[in-house]
Predict the structure of SFRICE_013514.
Amino acid sequence: VTLPAGRHKMVILDEADSMTDGAQQALRRTMELYSHTTRFALAANNSEKIIEPIQSRCAVLRYSRLTDAQIMAKVLEVCEKEQLSYTDEGVNAVVFTAQGDLRSALNNLQSTAQGFGHISAEHVFKVCDEPHPMMVRAMLEACLRQDVHEAYKVVAKLCKLGYAAEDIVSNIFRVCKTLDADEATRLALVREVGLTQLRVADGLGSALQLAGLLARCCRAAAAAH
């Protein structure tokens, strides 16, 4: 298509970070050849997967995740317009599992509505297949009391339900940030959870690793007091 002088074509590539290095090298050459007539817009979840030659030719715009309040407002709006049956706990569960991603929130909401016909916390966590945050919160509260045995009962139950160590640690981190404790204690717990998350990412996701995390959390809680 030939456009009038001064007009440019626009090419939008979604999920550009899924392209192989070879494909990105070919794209770079195409961008060089047609830069005078065409503008390229690349959307990616992880900019680190875009090769440097392409990044250097682009103006990078970074968008932060939405806040829980923004996700909540949109989810409630959809529930009202679609006349969905829901509870406050169910909507909170949708927001919790979304982690700031509106698309994920709407997908989880739709799946729960189609699967169960009612948006409740129990239904949402079944659809998302995530450890229930109330169980995780009970475990962390046991750590605050330095009751490692009670805390490990929760971890053992989550493992028995089939949850991976990565999912358990990820939910511990998210719940830990809203735990009812002083800031120094929360920071100490977040630090221990973060270190454990690194070890789990390296493949050390055994029950012993999770037990060690609980012991260190109990020790951190005791030291904070």
